[in-house]
Structures are given as structure tokens and as C-alpha cells.
Write a structure and sequence with these properties.
Helix content: 25-40%
Bound molecules: flavin-adenine dinucleotide
CATH class of the largest domain: Alpha Beta
Largest sheet: 7 strands, antiparallel
Number of domains: 4
CATH architecture of the largest domain: 2-Layer Sandwich
Structural class: alpha+beta
Shape: globular
CATH topology of the largest domain: Uridine Diphospho-n-acetylenolpyruvylglucosamine Reductase, domain 3
Number of helices: 18
Strand content: 15-25%
Strand order of the largest sheet: 15-12-14-13-17-18-16
Radius of gyration: 23 Å
Length: about 450
């Protein structure tokens, strides 16, 4: 635990009500990573000045600081340890300003994605980024991890959505670049340094995000594909058929879909499952789109699909999305195992998935490979599970997943960040010159190494 005298000083900087010790933290949900509250001490600054004062104090006394938004990140980036300070952005949540003419929203770092979506929707606009953790994940955390999600194939990842940013450096300096214009060539693009840096360079306090016209939802279907190759063919066909009216296209391999449908007691799913598909796709179109039925009929003629269910009402639509988004179903059924978040060029997606499945089965036939993902980006979330103890296979499993990725030109870290989980892989797979430059940046901006130590680098 941070020394008592430092705790008293920090309490003074943020005020009594914005300071939490171990007992108060014990009441909070640690999120997906059990160690996120282990530091036992947190500050919840309400102003940029307080953030700056906290950081300069910690810098002077070499106290490590871990920023936290919603604690929904999935690679251990928000984990903390004794002797560290948690800087929660929950109370930096006052501003959400939509500028309709400029089609931008300015938001404080602690504002949730859902709050931004709702504010933009009042003007028929949308931030063009959407993740299932929308109700809890914050703008600051999404900048920190360079979040991707369900709409990235249309509008890009956070890196493409952020126009401006304000951040506080470890020495307390405030970097302000709250541009609302996309054309601004003013030297190095400093804001990009903070996007995806997982709180290792400073604390993001505000951001400006681009907005897009909001779409009215048309139809939603759950589609059964006999093979991964057929699903990939459908991706291409859907893009050509619907063009910008294709709103979402998500993939769930059958083990995942079956687990979800069973838990949710989705009776209509059972008929689809009879066709024994390798994977299911969730396809959603805009209200302006050609009828989904016409597209699916074409796909059936070409034998790319074996069955499909078009949601007949909002209840069925919600059920389809619930099954796709409730990924905790995996942990509920298989607590142990190894998660991966990778991306593969779509051209090689089927070969990659098939090869990994085959090699894992050869390694240990008790292994269950569960895959879901944002297929239009070639982004797969692989969970390698077993009811038996397979912990001794960790190195071999990583080797299979990553060797094939490298061969097909994919990425070992698609959208969840490096955190603590992928540091070793990053060290192994990135060119030394790239690693050196990143370390140089870190050492320059955070010479005392106080910002989220043990993450990313
Ligand atoms: C059910 C579920 C579904 C998900 N789906 C997706 C998905 O589709 N796509 C996707 O990309 N992710 C997804 N995620 C992961 C997660 O929601 C994202 O990583 C999100 O961006 C994290 O936001 P957060 O506010 O919870 O950040 P936290 O978990 O609190 O923090 C994440 C990282 O950002 C840093 N950080 C937080 N706030 C700041 C700040 N103000 N300044 C600087 N650094 C900061 C932290 O130190 C940490 O390194 C999902 C998570 C869950 C639980």
C-alpha cells in the first residue's frame, strides 16, 4: 500500500470525497481482471487540474499510477498491484457536447460510450464505434486500448474516430489538441501517441470524436453457413449487395452459438442447429437496404448457407444480439483456458481457422476451440478451452496460434490491447527497431516510469 503520508497528500489534492481506500474499493466490481483493484488506494479527480496535481505529485515521489475507466478491458491493462495508485476517471464525466454542424462530439474521458451514443442519437448522429461493453467502457479507456468493435469495418477503430484529445503527462503538463477539424497538419500527430498506449504515457482527460449519420435498423438475421469458406464468400457478397446498407456482420462458430442459445433458451435456434453448420453469422441491414430475404435466397442457391432465421420482431432481434454479445458465456462454461484476440486478412481467414483447429486437435483432443468475432475485419476472438487441465499446453497453443498468424500476415493483438497478456508475444514478434523506438518514446515522456508500469512494453 502507498505510504500513509502520500495517501494523506493525495487525499488533500482531490478532496476527501474523491479518495477511496481499500474498504471502499472492496465495494466496486473489479471487472474482467480480478487484480484491477489490488492497489487498494484510488483517487477520483473531478477536474483536469486535480489530474495534473496528482500526476506531478506521483512523479515527484515515484508512485506508479494506473488509469481506469470502466475496467472492461480484456488483456490485463487495468490491473494494479500494492504500492500503486488507481486514478479512476469516473468523475471526469460532466461534458458531452454535440456539435451538429461540425458532426463531432466533445466528451470527458470518464463518459461512457453509451452516453455518447445516446447524446449523438438525439441529433440523428452516431459516434461510428460500438462495442458490447458500451454501457461501462469509457471514452478514455477506449482511447487507451484503441477499441475496435462492431462498426470498425465501416468507420474504423478509435484511432480513426478521434479528431482531438487532451491529456496530462506524468510531469503534470497538459497537452491540449482538441481539434474539431480533420485537416490539421501541425507537425507530429501527438494525439495518436496516446491512442492505444493503455495509460502508459499519460492520462487522457477529454476527446473529440467524429460523428456519422445514425442508421435506422432494417432487418436482422441469424444465418447458418456450412463451412468457414462459405461464410467468407458471404462476407464479400454482402458487401457488394448491400454496400453501405450493411450495418453489422458478426461471426459465431457453432460451439459458441450453441452455448449462448442454450443458456438463453432460444428455441428458434434449435431448428437452425439441425443443419449442423460450422458457423453462424449475425447480419443486420439498414432500413434503406434491399430485402435481406432476397440476399439470403441468392446465398442459398449458391449453397453458401444452409438455413437462416430473419428476426420477426424486436424480441427475436434482441435475442440474436444477446447471444452474440454475451461472451461471458464462455467463462461460465469453461473457466480455465487461453484467450486470443487476433486479426487475419479475410483472404486467409478460413485457412487460418481450419488450420488452427486441426493443429489444436492434434495437440490434445480434449481441447475445445471457441471462436467468435468481427468477421468483416478478419478479427477473431479465440478461446482455447478444455474441461481437462491443459495449462501445460500454454506455450504450444501460443505457438500454433501465432505461427499461423505470422504466415498469413495477421496481427497477434487486434483490438483488446497488449496489457499484461501479450507483452511476451509482442517482444518476440515485433522487429527490434520498432520495440526500441517505442521504449525511447516511453522513456522520454515518462522518464520515471510511473504510468501503468508492467503493461504494453
Ligand atoms: C463484454 C465485452 C465486450 C467487449 N467487446 C469489445 C469489442 O468489441 N471491441 C473492443 O475493442 N473491445 C471490446 N471489449 C474490451 C473493452 O471494453 C475495451 O477495451 C474498452 O476500450 C475498455 O474501456 P474501459 O473504460 O473499460 O477501460 P479500462 O479497462 O478501465 O482501461 C483500459 C486501458 O486504458 C487505460 N485507460 C483508461 N482510462 C484512461 C484514460 N483516461 N487515459 C489514459 N488511459 C486510460 C487503462 O490504464 C488501461 O490500460 C469488450 C469488453 C467486454 C467486457
Amino acid at each position: 500500500m502507498i505510504e500513509q503520508q502520500h495517501q494523506e497528500q493525495l487525499r488533500e489534492i482531490v478532496g476527501e470525497n474523491n479518495f477511496k481506500g481499500a474498504n471502499a474499493l472492496g465495494l466496486l466490481d473489479p471487472g474482467k481482471n480480478a487484480q484491477s483493484l489490488d492497489a487498494g488506494v484510488a483517487v477520483l479527480p473531478e477536474t483536469i487540474q486535480q489530474v495534473s496535481n496528482v500526476l506531478s505529485y506521483c512523479n515527484e515521489h515515484s508512485i506508479p499510477v494506473v488509469s481506469q475507466g470502466g475496467r472492461t478491458s480484456l488483456a490485463g491493462a487495468a490491473n494494479t498491484a500494492e504500492g500503486q495508485l488507481i486514478l479512476m476517471t469516473t468523475r471526469l464525466n460532466k461534458m458531452i457536447e454535440v456539435d451538429v454542424d461540425a458532426a463531432v462530439v466533445k466528451a470527458d474521458a470518464g463518459v461512457t460510450l453509451q452516453a455518447v451514443q445516446e447524446a449523438a442519437a438525439e441529433y440523428g448522429l452516431s459516434p461510428g464505434i460500438n462495442i458490447p461493453a458500451r454501457g461501462t467502457a469509457t471514452i478514455g479507456g477506449m482511447v487507451g486500448t484503441n477499441a475496435g468493435g462492431l462498426e470498425a469495418f465501416r468507420y474504423g477503430v478509435m484511432r480513426n474516430r478521434v479528431l482531438g484529445l487532451e491529456a496530462v503527462l506524468p510531469n503534470g503538463d497538459v497537452i491540449s489538441d482538441m481539434k474539431v477539424v480533420s485537416k490539421a497538419n501541425e507537425g507530429y500527430d501527438i494525439k495518436q501517441l496516446f491512442i492505444g498506449s493503455e495509460g502508459t504515457l499519460g492520462v487522457v482527460t477529454k476527446a473529440v470524436l467524429k460523428l456519422e449519420p445514425a442508421d435506422s435498423i432494417g432487418e436482422t438475421a441469424l444465418v447458418a453457413c456450412p463451412t468457414t469458406e462459405d461464410a467468407v464468400a458471404l462476407l464479400r457478397a454482402a458487401r457488394a449487395f448491400f454496400k453501405s446498407d450493411l450495418l453489422f456482420l458478426e461471426g459465431m462458430w457453432s460451439t459458441y452459438a450453441k452455448l449462448g442459445a442454450k443458456e438463453a433458451d432460444f428455441k428458434a435456434f434449435n431448428q437452425l442447429a439441425e443443419s449442423d453448420p460450422v458457423l453462424y453469422l449475425v447480419v443486420e441491414t439498414s432500413a434503406k437496404a434491399e430485402p435481406l430475404e432476397d440476399f439470403l435466397a441468392k446465398m442459398a442457391e449458391q449453397e453458401k448457407i444452409v438455413d437462416a432465421l430473419i428476426a420477426k420482431n424486436e424480441g427475436e432481434r434482441r435475442m440474436i444480439w444477446h447471444i452474440r454479445e454475451d461472451s461471458f458465456v464462455i467463462e461460465r462454461n469453461f473457466p480455465a483456458g487461453f484467450p486470443f484476440d487476433v486479426s487475419v486478412p479475410i483472404t486467409h481467414l478460413a485457412d487460418y481457422a481450419n488450420r488452427v483447429e486441426k493443429e489444436l486437435a492434434a495437440l490434445d483432443d480434449s481441447i475445445v476451440l471457441i471462436i467468435l468475432g468481427h468477421l468483416m475485419d478478419g478479427n477473431l476472438h479465440l478461446s482455447i478451452k478444455s474441461l481437462a487441465d491443459v495449462s501445460h499446453h500454454q506455450a504450444a497453443v501460443k505457438e500454433i496460434v501465432n505461427r499461423n498468424l505470422m504466415e498469413f500476415g495477421g496481427s497477434f493483438s487486434a483490438e483488446h490491447g497488449i496489457g499484461t497478456e501479450k507483452r511476451g508475444t509482442r517482444q518476440k514478434l515485433l522487429p527490434q527497431a520498432n520495440l526500441n523506438l517505442m521504449q525511447l518514446l516511453k522513456d522520454t515522456i515518462d522518464p520515471n516510469g510511473i504510468m501503468n508500469p508492467g503493461k504494453v512494453l
